[in-house]
Amino acid sequence: MEVPVTGFMFNSDDSDPLHTHQLFITDWDGRQVHVHEFRGVTSFDDGHHHQYAGTTEPAQTGVPHTHWYFTFTSVDDGHQHEIRGVTGPAIPIPGGGHYHEFRGMTTLSGAHPHSHHYSGNTSQEF
């Protein structure tokens, strides 16, 4: 089964040793989609915190929806954690658009295995 998809890709600069590309899907099977950026700082646990940032997976525009998200934290105290989950439902913004709340716990990691809490709001849709 083929699903028509349209979108665009951004190349990262070659200074990143992981050399990644960002793919932005704008239309999936004839339905317009959108994404949100998210970022924040984890709770302070085991003597440190971590920063994180990412972009949600696409979701359909104009209907009740949530977004999956995934990223890695910054490397602090010699380790990093995974952050993944599903946002809450869309929260309308007066004048148009919306954002989502997100929260959870990181994966366990570190010389003394531990996790961190995180929470925040996504950017407005784009």
Automatic annotation (TrEMBL):
<dbReference type="InterPro" id="IPR024307">
    <property type="entry name" value="YmaF"/>
</dbReference>
<dbReference type="Pfam" id="PF12788">
    <property type="entry name" value="YmaF"/>
</dbReference>
<protein>
    <recommendedName>
        <fullName>YmaF family protein</fullName>
    </recommendedName>
</protein>
